Amino acid sequence: MYTSLSNRRSFIKKMAMLSAMTAAASMFPGILFADEQEKGIPDNVNLNWKKGPCRFCGVGCGILVGTENGKAVAVKGDPNCSVNKGLLCVKGYHQIMCIQSKDRLTHALVKKNGRYVQTPLDEALDIVANKMKETIASHGKDSVAMYTSGQSTIPEGYVASKLMKGAIGTNNLDCNARLCMASAVAGFLTSFGADEPMGCYEDIDHADYFVTWGNNMAEMHPVLFSRMLEQKSLRGAKIIDFATRTTRSSTASDKSILFEPQTDLAVANAICYEIIKNGWVNKSFVEKHCSFSKGLTNMGYGLEDKYKFKDKPEKIDFEAYKEFLKDYSPEKVSKYSKVSVKDIKYLASIYGNPNNKVVSYWCMGMNQHTRGTWMNNLVYNIHLLTGKISQPGNGPFSLTGQPSACGTAREVGTFTHKLPKGVVMNKKHRELAAKIWKVPVERIPSKPTYHATEMFRAVDRGDIKFIWTQATNPLVSLPKTGRYRPAMEKKSCFVVVSDVFPTPTSDVADVILPAAWHIEKSGLYGNSERRTQHWNKMVEAPGEATADAWMFIEVAKRMGYGDLFPYSKENHVEEIYNEYRQFHEGAKHGMAPLEVLKKESGAIWPYVNGKSTQWRFNAKYDPACSNDEAFHFYGKPDGKAVIWQRPFEEAPEKPDQEYPFWLNTGRVVEHWHTGSMTRRIPVLHQAMPNAYVEFHPDDAKKLGIRNGENIKVSSRRGSCVLPASINERGLPTKGQVFVPFFDENMLINDVTLDAFCPISKEPDYKKCAVKVQKV
Amino acid sequence: MPIKSYLVHPHSGRKKELIKALSVIDQCQIVPAENKELIVLVTDTETGKEEENLKEKLEAIESLKLLAMVSGFNTP
Ligand code: SF4
């Protein structure tokens, strides 16, 4: 990538400087370094800057990539992008450094006699298409599956859905967003009948309080956290961190409140109890815009194969809801949540005070939860009871982890039950898809099949005989990988993996397809605030690496579906997006035209009459409101949002005598998810070279564990050896250990439990029981 | 050939003095924050030994309160 060592050296120095500036930005709100970002870029080059979204997280920062002679040589924050206003985090600045990695997948590899043989891409795609066809012919269409990603672009997700559901006619399509966002989706659909947040990042500029629910934003959403810190310093906005572990976010917050794992359910109910008891309910809002429901309880945890659950909602009234909340007085909840009565009342008073504007933020803590859908419902309850929703600075806001978890997984719908508009169970939605796809409606099956965990269980059972994964690394990221790794190695299933780098998942593949990276193809992502972002291809991919969308199309053609995929290689992104836009036409979900997205740093849907809709369901901002009231929750047939009665229920596995610690898993600021990209970026890898197990100092002292000593963390499912970390990055509560999951050499997901939320089917990576031993 | 970056915190009111002290060291490149008591420092040395010596030299600067490393790596 670099022509001379000195050039490379000055580039690395610049990168080192940028990481320090980024670290400073998260510690000192509003810190300024003049124009250093640009000054640090080598000055003897003539750079051509091209805009796009960051490759990594769901914040969706705008980046400018500087290219010279066909090579990407620098990245800076896009000052014109309202998401980040020129800021980037340490991952964002360094992102392009991974594409030059020596072990980049540049050619297709086909396993022959146990060895990978470099194979022309055309030939490898023939093998994939033939294998898929043969498998369908011998075992039926539900014997083949595809597992995609919240990192796939919108066109990639769209052609995957069209190929599986419209062409082949199977719902065996799910994606890794099931592991991170499914509870948020189920929460939105049950409470509002419409997915994705009603507000936007501009809420940050208006809110008086930010309450973060189990969410370490300083490390996971660093640019948004910097924006919050800036408001803290400018306007005195307050940040309240409610979590099970003390993190960088907790120390930068105004107040940190710790709770016992799983009891967030009870605390949220206690907040509602207090709101009602103190007369803080916004009565006219609730009367006009809310209804009350309850669902089934004691649903189980999905631990057994082929587990099924369907909720049975039942309408209730306000009095019944009030009666239910009697079990959740702060005094009662304090006993098992370990949150003081005073702190519960304090949280309730923040939401209850009609003069406060409050935004709640959450991500994996609430979503990766065996009662994740309930937890999402409960936070909505708080905002609905107080009427603090759908207004600048007031609202619940679920953040995403992946750059296009919203745009691709949720909006295009790469889940087994989804279609680009609506769900497979709905006849009208199937009819619309059949019309746009030009396929017979009978071809789209009306029943969902496998969600992520169940899909890999089906591979293990031998029910799925062909699986194709793209832009994801399930053998590091699934829970209980100890079961699914041997499953994927079985001869009964043919495994195709498309990726940019080798991973533990590609290690078990029969065919590895070399994928183009982000800026080596054109594409569109959709971030957490409903913003659709487009970018043009900036550099050529190495070797035969090709955009995933084009590889799908090539396979579809080889399988005989060419007429359904009439796109051109040069313009397929544009052609696919224009076809996809038809699904969302109208005021409720209209997508911005490509010409707009090419010019601007994204636009927020519903994009109506040339304008983004920043706050949905509020008649002042949202042209889809049609009930002549100030608010209209038009996702529900009666136009009302639902306040759900959802109880506290225990976690499926709790610490006991044999396994006395809670295990919590998560991420660190330097690495992105399973680390396949960021561990190939020297600055990031060296800043955080390996995973670790974090202890509370009292627990470490009791066990005689010192920093850096090797510790075996074991559960009933498996074990993992990691160095101990005490008083370093984070501080778990007593009786809890924390392990980040980015390190493929220390697979903590061999230890986790594959229990999931019965409604959303999203696994809980935050709670299981483990023991620890020095080794 | 190590390259490292640090956040350098001056003793109260001594930022200017610290900037001056750091600017005269060959292997140091600095970017002072405009509006906070903080300086970003990048060091560039030929060998591990030189790097160690430099670190000692930095720590001896009187106006320097704290040196916190952010990133560092070796490069050919
Ligand atoms: S906050 Fe997220 S989107 Fe922004 S630069 Fe960092 S990783 Fe990229």
How would you describe the oligomerization state of the chains in this entry? heterodimer
**Per DSSP, what share of the residues of chain A sits in E-state strands of 2 or more residues?**
15-25%
- Strand composition percent of chain B: 35-45%
* Total number of distinct structural domains of chain A: 4
CATH architecture of the largest domain in chain A: 3-Layer(aba) Sandwich
**CATH level 1 class label of the largest domain in chain A:** Alpha Beta
CATH class of chain B: Alpha Beta
Mind summarizing the main beta sheet of chain B? Answer: 4 strands, antiparallel
Please estimate the helix content of chain B: 25-40%
The total strand number of chain A stands at: 31
Please describe the topology of this protein.
The complex is a heterodimer of chains A (775) and B (76).
Chain A: H1 5-27, H2 36-39, E1 48-53, E2 62-68, E3 71-77, H3 90-94, E4 108-112, E5 115-119, H4 121-139, E6 144-148, H5 154-168, E7 173-175, H6 182-192, E8 209-213, H7 217-220, H8 222-235, E9 238-243, E10 245-246, H9 248-252, E11 255-258, H10 264-277, H11 283-289, E12 290-294, E13 314-316, H12 318-324, H13 330-337, H14 341-352, E14 358-362, H15 364-367, H16 372-386, E15 395-398, H17 405-413, H18 427-437, H19 452-461, E16 466-470, H20 474-477, H21 481-489, E17 494-499, E18 511-514, E19 523-526, E20 531-535, H22 548-561, H23 572-581, H24 594-599, E21 603-604, E22 607-608, E23 611-612, E24 641-645, E25 661-666, H25 682-687, E26 693-695, H26 697-703, E27 710-714, E28 719-726, E29 731-732, E30 736-740, E31 768-774
Parallel strand pairs in A: 6-7, 6-16, 8-9, 8-14, 9-11, 12-24, 14-15, 16-17, 17-18, 25-30, 26-28
Antiparallel strand pairs in A: 1-2, 2-3, 4-5, 4-18, 10-29, 12-13, 19-20, 20-21, 22-23, 25-31, 27-28, 27-31
Helix pairs in contact in A: 4-22, 5-17, 5-22, 5-23, 6-16, 10-13, 10-14, 10-16, 13-14, 19-21
Chain B: E1 2-10, H1 15-23, E2 28-32, E3 39-44, H2 48-59, E4 64-74
Antiparallel strand pairs in B: 1-3, 1-4, 2-3
The structure holds iron/sulfur cluster.
Residues 54, 56-57, 59-61, 84, 88-89, 91-92, 221-223 of chain A line the site of iron/sulfur cluster (SF4).
